[in-house]
Amino acid sequence: MATMSLGTDTPESTTAPETGPSFIVTDAALAKVLEIRGAEDDPESLCLWIEVTGTKGPDYTYDLSFETIADLEPTDHRESVSGGLMVAIPEGSLDQLRGSTLDLPASAGQGGLVLRNPNRPNPLAGMTLELTGDIADKVAQLLEQSINPSLASHGGYATLVGVDDTKVFLTMGGGCQGCSMSAATLVEGIQVAIKEAIPEVTEIIDATDHTAGENPFYT
Fold first, then answer.
1. Which letter does DSSP use for residue 152 in this model?
2. For residue 82, which of 119, 33, 122 has the smallest C-alpha distance?
């Protein structure tokens, strides 16, 4: 079946809702999807399939395609969208996609579709780290061994500024400074990773001067 170009964009929130539809398709995206599906053989028999296929840096990667409704597994999650479109999500991707919105790019002239996903992968998934020393030592080791290698794919990095009792102060640099995604990355990715690996940490504070970046988050 046909696949579609899919990118990511700034999330509309940093926390996925616990109620309501699991996956939202805006009217603009719906019109585009229906247009593409209309060129397929027997379009009414097809659903929009979206699946999390892995991770790239602080974001998930996705497969977006049309699949035959009759071929879906009983465990696949299904949601009906206005316009006669069914969205199907495999069971293993549902929590990772919950609260996401499929939309057209915000930038005029940019093709394809974008997925605004408030969820972020855990950079510690599948890793076993042995962190030693005080909080500052442990955070520095975590940044070096796990978090910064993940951010490197986006040209960014996180730096430990200091520790005040159980509060940790970080700054985002490189491609993360001034990026509209950096605050969400800090909250959804780095904060979760630090608190999971170093439970004595009670708060992570973003000390980045985002106005110094090319695309400041705070104005």
1. G
2. 33
Neighbours of 134 (CB within 10 A): 9
Residues contacting residue 185 through CB under 8 Å, at least 6 positions apart:
58, 120, 151, 172, 176
Tens-place pLDDT, residues 98-135: 888 999 987 766 678 888 888 877 655 555 667 889 99
Residue 113 phi/psi, 5-degree rounding, is: -125, 160
Angle at 196 between CA 191 and CA 202, to 5 degrees: 60
Quote the CATH superfamily of domain 135-212: Fe-S cluster assembly (FSCA) (3.30.300.130)
Nearby residues of 115 by Cβ (< 8 Å), 6 or more positions away = 6, 7, 8, 9, 50, 62, 64, 100, 101, 102, 103
CB 201 within 8 A of CB 193: no
Give the total residue count for the chain: 219
- End-to-end CA distance of the chain, in Å? 44
Residue spans per domain, the chain: 6-116, 135-212
Domain made up of 6-116: CATH architecture: Sandwich (2.60)
Q: What is the pTM of this model?
A: 0.55
